[in-house]
Amino acid sequence: RFLRDYPRLDRWFNEGVTHAFLIPWRTPNLRYLSGLSPRSRELIEFESKRIAKRIIEDHEAKIVIVAGKETLVRAGKLLGLGLSPQDVESARQGERVYQWRSLSAPSGLTVLQVPHWSRANSRERLKPVADWLSRQLAL
């Protein structure tokens, strides 16, 4: 629904990029994943990091877009951003589920955090995000 309001973003997301989940094992949410045994979490995170790095390398990615706060923390671990949950709540634009920002990974990769569309669904509050994202992607 959000992308339909912004045709250039919609076209870019649906025709111009590769989509991938950073966590290859689907769970209802990241809290469920956190509730697994330490060994299971360790294995999933190890394999996720390996897969994510391979996807980024194979596609020669310059930008990775993550949706939501929990995903930013998880992607931060996978991509070596060194983010704490406190970092996720600071140095950003927007508030709560409507936050967005740009970060640089040590590898030179740009990480763009956008709101998780399923939680942030006010068209009016997403307009500044769409404008910012369009500028970041030079659309």
Fold and architecture overview:
Helix content is 47%, strand content 10%. The protein has helices at residues 7-15, 30-34, 38-58, 69-79, 85-89, 123-136, and strands spanning 63-67, 101-104, 110-114. It has a 3-stranded mixed β-sheet, sandwiched between helices. The two termini are 19 Å apart. The model has no long low-confidence stretch (mean pLDDT 81).
Helix content: 40-55%
Secondary structural class: mainly alpha
Sequence of secondary-structure elements: HHHEHHEEH
Major sheet strand order: 1-3-2
Rough outline? globular
Helix tally? 6
Oligomer: single chain
Strand percentage: 5-15%
Spans of 5+ residues with little confidence (pLDDT < 50)? none
Q: Give the biggest beta sheet.
A: 3 strands, mixed
Mean pLDDT value = 81
Provide the gyration radius in Å. 15 Å
Distance between the termini: 19 Å
- Count all strands and give the number: 3
Put the structure in a nutshell.
The chain has helices at 7-15, 30-34, 38-58, 69-79, 85-89, 123-136; strands at residues 63-67, 101-104, 110-114.
Layout: helices, strands, pairs:
Elements: H1 7-15, H2 30-34, H3 38-58, E1 63-67, H4 69-79, H5 85-89, E2 101-104, E3 110-114, H6 123-136
Parallel strand pairs: 1-3
Antiparallel strand pairs: 2-3
List keywords for this structure.
139 residues; mainly alpha; three-stranded mixed sheet; 6 helices; 3 strands; globular
